[in-house]
Amino acid sequence: MSLAKILVAQGGGPTAVINQSLVGVVLEARRQAGVSKVYGARHGVRGIVNEDFVDLTQETSHNLELVAGTPASALGSTRDKPDAAYCREIFTVLQAHGITHFFYIGGNDSSDTVRIVSEEAAAASYPLRCIHIPKTIDNDLVGNDHTPGYASAARFVAQAFAGANLDNAALPGVYVGVVMGRHAGFLTAAAALGKKFDDDGPHLIYLPERDFHLDEFLRDVKATHERYGRCVIAVSEGIHDASGAPMLAKLAGDLERDAHGNVQLSGTGALADLLCEEVKARLGIKRVRGDTFGYLQRSFLGCVSDVDQREAREVGEKAVQYAFHGSRDGSVAIQRVGYYSVDYALLPLADVAGKTRTMEDHFINEAGTDVTDAFRLYLRPLLGSGMPDAFRLRPNPVEKVLGRG
Amino acid sequence: MSLAKILVAQGGGPTAVINQSLVGVVLEARRQAGVSKVYGARHGVRGIVNEDFVDLTQETSHNLELVAGTPASALGSTRDKPDAAYCREIFTVLQAHGITHFFYIGGNDSSDTVRIVSEEAAAASYPLRCIHIPKTIDNDLVGNDHTPGYASAARFVAQAFAGANLDNAALPGVYVGVVMGRHAGFLTAAAALGKKFDDDGPHLIYLPERDFHLDEFLRDVKATHERYGRCVIAVSEGIHDASGAPMLAKLAGDLERDAHGNVQLSGTGALADLLCEEVKARLGIKRVRGDTFGYLQRSFLGCVSDVDQREAREVGEKAVQYAFHGSRDGSVAIQRVGYYSVDYALLPLADVAGKTRTMEDHFINEAGTDVTDAFRLYLRPLLGSGMPDAFRLRPNPVEKVLGRG
Predict the structure, then answer these.
(1) Where are the domains positioned within chain A?
(2) How far apart (Å, rounded) are the C-alpha atoms in residues A324 and A316?
(3) How does it assemble (chains A, B) (predicted)?
(4) Could you say which of B74, B295, B303 has the minimum Cβ distance to residue A289?
(5) Which fold has domain B4-148+304-352?
(6) Measuring CA to CA, which of A21, A190, B48, B230 is 20 to 30 A from A363?
């Protein structure tokens, strides 16, 4: 029996639990018979073509467990999206090092990379087992009930809106919080889980699954402000008009585009500022504040769902088990069982790669400005244990003596 | 013995622990002999002139404890800064309701309100005991080692930068995080406590205690980026040039000003975006991202220092004890004892009111771009127990086979 050599890498945006998956792969791979080496590539596929490997066979289990509990990609990540020539470079390096099993932890772009690598390996008759391990805070991988990383980011968004709502109740006005998610509104929708009492915010939620109309937005904000004396709004960075043009693109003409041709939506506060200006100017409301949650929602140290941690660990373990005890390449997927547990499946790479899931219609209310109870029921168990709660004083009004104002 | 009637209110920006102080006042006041009523004013001094009171004598201890653990001002807050006429309105209401003790929880503006109310009450021979209870995430009250609310916000900032540093290490580039603090850099400086390893960010910290020079900033960012391949920067919203003009004011001419004549610095992502544009345009660095921490740093539900909670509770209790067992009005102050405990003092209102503490020189390094170990030692115990920690893989490089790139 020839010895197996494992290569694992992390791609795309970091999450709070992606290192759980990494450590799941490493520890499970080290338990397999006949595995001589477990390598990690630094900064994803870029580390492969650069032969930038670290030997994870020489890392202690103790430190691996500590790294598993640390957010962001411990091996480093990349936004590179390999083309055919890039993939040939990958093969050259994999062959030179005798790699037999390749695990890539990432989102839909990364799954597409695994698909290309898998297909090219087959075409070149190079014996390589390729497994994609799901990871994305956007929750936009098809075939998955949800994706590792989403739950912890969702928990951050829910806790952020729960706090922002209390702040806004103390100093009333309009508050706009802009949340990550280019095409899928799952993370923005998590804001709804920060709401406890009927009059709590977020009062309005705007998702990329629905067209955004500035006039309707202003009408809704005005009505909410008149009703409650304040208004808390969750907005996806990916909101767009009926033509599909991002609202942010209407603000600035000269936007940065990444290697995938996508406009840069994160890392700028422009969308929140634009919406606040519109509310101030057209509704005449004085106190209007906007926050862009930015990188905190995926990187904040110390906000994590224990359910997310467990599942992220398991998809890494399952990937190794599929690789060593199964017979084909694929993408590990999470499926929901009961309320609440999960099971795993290995989907064909072509079923997942490069596709984008968006929020299902039954998760969005008819007006398109809130989620449904079906969504609340879907998300609640993912947030994990120990969610902080908010309490308020009960009304015990004192009778006025002077009878003024 | 005539019965005492208590009035407590909350002013200024909410914090994670201001309700601990409120509940400290209420529970301690309800224990005093001869107290008939404990009222809370809704939305600070505005609630007083509007006679908008709630009867906290009719709230359960159980619910008060739950409210104490909830961030943001449970009574509501206000940005009103009363003048003499406003204070006369306050007296009219206090007299009508027979209030004997007034407790106001807030920052330096609120302490000045208490001072005016105290002086006017004395001038009018109206028997009123007035106690100011400290609260501000800015940590800018004179006479205090630190202020309740600061430690929890500092913990948020430290955890945020610890996570942002990991994210930036995974996907290298320049990251700018803008932190609250108009005149005092204490909260921005807390970013330094997110750093663990020598090459971790934040690599540069810019405080309002030092003049900001764009050319020096760009020079420092360039040098850091060349050294580490990345750069994480903490910037106070209050940075200003040598003339004292806010850097943000250089960006936009038409800025909102509040009732105190201050320019609105929070609730907009403009400063981070401006600095990112400068780095991109003048240093030619491609991946440059900016976050403005905004309201999350003071309101996020679930990020709190247990030390901060305890002290915020105690300043409320102490305020009542000073009021009932002391002989003068004043402002409760926190003083550090040993490493680490605290004691309390009642300072004359005029010593605290309307004054602003800024970071002491020995807390800032010579270059003005980092804190000193003295500051780290100062802040560390305030962050409380259970601070999350970050771990990394140890370097075990694999020898290159192809010997390229």
Answers:
(1) 4-148+304-352, 152-302+360-383
(2) 13
(3) Homodimer.
(4) B295
(5) Rossmann fold (3.40.50)
(6) A21
